[in-house]
Design brief:
Blueprint: E1 8-15, H1 20-31, E2 36-42, E3 47-52, H2 59-67, E4 72-73, H3 78-113, H4 120-135, H5 137-148, H6 154-174, H7 177-180, H8 190-214, H9 216-222, E5 228-232, E6 238-242, E7 251-254, E8 263-269, E9 271-274, H10 276-279, E10 285-287, E11 292-293, E12 298-299, E13 304-310, H11 316-329, H12 333-363, H13 368-382, H14 385-405, E14 408-410, H15 413-419, E15 424-428, H16 429-433, E16 439-445, H17 448-464, H18 470-476, E17 487-491, E18 495-500, E19 503-508, H19 510-515, H20 522-533, E20 537-543, E21 547-554, H21 561-570, E22 574-578, H22 583-593, E23 597-599, H23 604-616, E24 621-625, H24 631-636, E25 639-643, E26 656-658, H25 665-699, H26 703-706, H27 712-735
Parallel strand pairs: 15-22, 15-24, 22-23, 24-25, 25-26
Antiparallel strand pairs: 1-3, 1-4, 2-3, 5-6, 5-7, 7-13, 8-11, 8-13, 9-10, 9-12, 14-26, 16-21, 17-18, 18-19, 19-20, 20-21
Domain HMA: 8-74
Keywords: ATP-binding, Cell membrane, Membrane, Metal-binding, Nucleotide-binding, Translocase, Transmembrane, Transmembrane helix
Pfam family, one: E1-E2_ATPase
Length: 738
Amino acid sequence: METLEQTVKTNFPVTGMSCAACAGSVESMLQAQPDIISAAVNFASSSVLVEYAPGKANPAEWKKAIQSVGYDLLTENMETGLEDHQRAHYAQLKKRTIWAVLFSVPLVVIGMFFMNMPYANWIMWALSTPVVLVLGRHFFINAWKQARNGKANMDTLVALSTGIAYAFSVFNTLNPEFWHSRGLHPHVYFEAAAVVIAFILLGKLLEERAKASTSSAIKKLMGLQPNTVVRIAADGQETVVPLAEVQVGDVLLVKPGEQVPVDGKLVGGKSYVDESMITGEPVAVAKEPGSEVFAGTLNQKGSFRLEAAQVGGATLLAQIIRKVQEAQGSKAPVQKLVDKVAGIFVPVVIGIALLAFASWLIWGGANGLTQGLLALVTVLVIACPCALGLATPTAIMVGMGKGAENGILIKDAESLEKAYRIQALILDKTGTITEGKPAVTGEAWLSEEDRLMFSGAFLALERESEHPLAEAVVKQLQGITPEKLQHFESITGRGVKGSALGKGFFAGNQQLLEENGIRIADSLKEKSDEWLNAAYTVIWFADTQKALAVIAIADKIKDGSPEAIQQLQDMGIEVYMLTGDNARTAAAVAAQTGIRNVKAGLMPDGKAAFVQELQRQGKVVAMVGDGINDSHALAQADVSIAMGKGTDIAMDVAMMTLISSDLRHIPKAIRLSRKTVRTIRQNLFWAFIYNVIGIPVAAGVLIPITGFSLDPMLAGAAMALSSVSVVSNSLRLKLSTI
């Protein structure tokens, strides 16, 4: 029987992409490779998320396929290779932009004010040639590579527009009589060809700077680990070693002000550690021997020694970085529509440009050829697939990064887009609304003498019990010496019994006492009723004759739960609490937190059935749980949110994982989703509107009505600014509060 090979997902850097159509070309070439299961290109981050089976993968062939259409795929030294390439590309782009501007300024001056000076056309030809053929040569090279493969992108538009303007101007400079003999003036557009390239280069320069800012959150996370650490040998000798050499089990020294290098446990020293960069919690956490610490967190006060438990890619920080990178590379559903539009965008624009040229040539009269040529060039220049391509991924990247900085991990773009539509949110009680750690909140004994004589027997019984609540009693009685048990027996659903000090004892619920004919004093019964009315769990301790003590146990509500629930309800979201506890306990928790909708006594299947019931009512349902016990309901929900703490977080289970167990992160996550989706819509609106308005104006539709015509140089500036404006709008997310 054939077994399915496990697949992996890897982000590979892609170089040479200039627009959304480029991303489409790279994606289609990779998806055509037989050993690739799926490929999703992120134009904003210049990367592609490839899913493949490791045993069958052939990255060398992928690289060759990408290079055939004018791009490159970095398959070795990916992180440093991409950084080196981006640095070199930015420096080269900056140099080309400066030179293009320096050549273009005198061109504009001559073209606007000194057109009739001697040899003006020849001087402009000399000034424009380095810009078009040298500084802008990559537009023509890339356009040719695309054409060879039957594809087109932004480079095609730039090469066609500037190439036609330049070639037409050269012809008119060399053969002015051709037009004079026909009663026409031989116009030249050298300044338009050069300035368009200068503006596009300037726009690309600004765009690269802005795009670099969209991934700053990931770069910040990557910079949280030190390059070297102090390792302590068995003989106590301290040695400074590279972080990469640290092995599981090594003991490391972390001094005040240093970042924790790996995940591990304290084996010596005490301190306070700032975990805000991972959990989003601003308050430093006290650490002592036995406490867990995580890579990237900041040691504040004292020095401590830790034993490495997770190193390298296994640390929590490394997992977070990997998950966020994958999420940033994923595509929102709306992006699929945008990709289709971008795929046909360039051919449609070329068609519109040719139609505009033909229309002016036929119906434009004496200036039809000149106006048609201007319209053709301007349409090709102003059309901008870049703005469309950047609209969604830049917002997604910033949104994912913002979430990671606040301890909110979002699985993919689809999850982020779904979360803003949440109408009903279901909370598990234990460990979600409450701390999930039962603790004794009250203790009453029949007499002080009984407490002194028999508390050791009570402790001995509870130490042997496997019931979850027994741990709370043991913690309450710590410091007391347990008696030696001669006999012990667990009674399912009731409690435990045993013998010590030469007599029998019981510990459990009231039913256990009643079944054994044990008397309960009025004073203890009143205390028990009081605690039961407050929804506490009550445990009795008795000998064979009478009840000796009663203890109240409660699962404390987290500090932020009432505030978070109020925020969610203020956002118009219906909040439900589902629990397996009894109705009285559930009602008490609901009263303390402000929850209006409660379902008690539910088994895991019942929780999933309730999710289905809400979905049948047409509601978008989110389920919040620990990602394990509530897996059935989490899987059924439209949006699943796992509450986690440290390395126990269920990253692969839920669409969203909150690293902190604070419920207040849930409204934060939903607000982040709403703001990100709003930003995507704004970006797409302006990108579409820009092209819908800009292309007809460039074609000259306003000339017969108002006489207004758009200059190719202004079209180039508008095209460059459209991309920059989309990225800048996405970057506003970084400054917003959630």
